[in-house]
Structure formats: C-alpha cells, structure tokens
Amino acid sequence: MFVKRDIITQYKQTILGPLWFFINPMLTTAMYMIVFGRIAKISTDGLPQPLFYLAGICLWNYFSICLTKTSTTFIDNQNIFGKVYFPRLIMPMSTVTSALFTFSIQLLLFVAVYVFYILNGATIAPNVYILLLPVLVVMLAGLALGFGIITSSMTTKYKDLSILFTFIVQLWMYATPIIYPLSELSPKKQWIAALNPVTSIIETFKFGTMGTGIFSWYQLGYSFVFMCIVLGLGIVVFNKVQRSFMDTV
Description:
Number of strands: 0
Radius of gyration: 19 Å
Helix content: over 70%
Structural class: mainly alpha
Distance between the termini: 25 Å
C-alpha cells in the first residue's frame, strides 16, 4: 500500500506526469555535458558523454532518492505513527522499494542510449561483471536505508540535522565518480575516493556495462561490509528511537 502510494503521488497533479521519470535524467545529463564536458572539459574515459553521465546518474538518483526520503521517515509520517501501531521499519523499506520503479525506468533510458551507441560503432565492451547489477542495487539500497534511518532517528530530536544532511548529500555526489572517471585521479586520490562506499558500486557498473573504469573485488567487498555495518547499526538505532519518538518529534 505504501509503495503504491509513493509511486502514484510522486508526480500527481503534474502536466507531464510519468514523463518526468525520463525528463529528469535527460536534463541532468544535458547539463553535465555542457558544464563538465564542454566548459570544464572533464574527461569521460573515452566514452560518449551521454552514456558516461547516464551510467552514474541512474545509480546515484536511486541512492539519493532512497537516502533523502528515508532520512525524514519519522517527521513525514508522524501523523500515521501517532494513530496506529505497525512495524515502523515498513515505511523506509517501502520508500526503498518504490524507488526501484523510478530506477527501472531510468535504467531503460540508459539501455536505449547504450544500444544506440553500440549500433553506431562506439567503443564499448560489456563483460560478465554486468551480472553484478542486482547486487549493486541491493548494496545501494542497504547503504541508503542504513544512513537514512540513522539520520531520521537523529532528526526527531535535532531537526537542524535534516538541513545539514541535504547539504551533505550534495557534497557526497561530487565525492563519487559520476561526473569524472576514477582513473583520472592519482593512485593516492583513488585510494581516498575508494573510502566512499558508493564509489566502487558506480565504478563496477561502468566497468561491467562499458568495460571502462576501475574494478576491484577488494573495494566492492569493502562497500558490502560497510553496507552491512551501517544497515545493522541503523536498524538498532531506529528500533530504539521508535519507542519514544512521539514524545520528541
């Protein structure tokens, strides 16, 4: 019920409706091409710019949507939580699930652009690592859910954190190789960038679909362990806060 609600109400009372699922990543890609491609002249690792940017945008949009919406779970749903009891964790989980609908549509857009460039002879080399996509999506969902519910639990008492968190998410995107290839960084900076658990996920997707990028089982394993720790900690904190949050929200 909550998943259906999230999907239906997302673009309710808009003129273009579901078309925004396509328009949003297309406009973002066009902006990146102009600002980072033509003006800043940042390399795309020899890949067509639309394809390079869309690969990062699809995964990052899913992560950021889940992260932003789950981080306000208690505040956004305090009226429902105050009327009837049900497992509170259902709310952030439904957000992560409903965001898969948006991700699927934007992934179809990426596939369409992907096929277009393959048919036009672009140097793209998909490989067996493309099969890791479901694992990558689960990892993004786990990271977003973990960080989101931790933030949501903290903002029940300190609402200023929600404003700060929005700023952190914006900075987080630039710390992730979406508008630039990781290979352009020096080895030392690559090591620092790899501390970001989302970095290896984005790079694995680009490597699997286009054969360009840096893939490492060690970095991907680090991201998976990081996700498990954050998600476990988030569930513990969330369950602790939900018992008394109505007194502080």
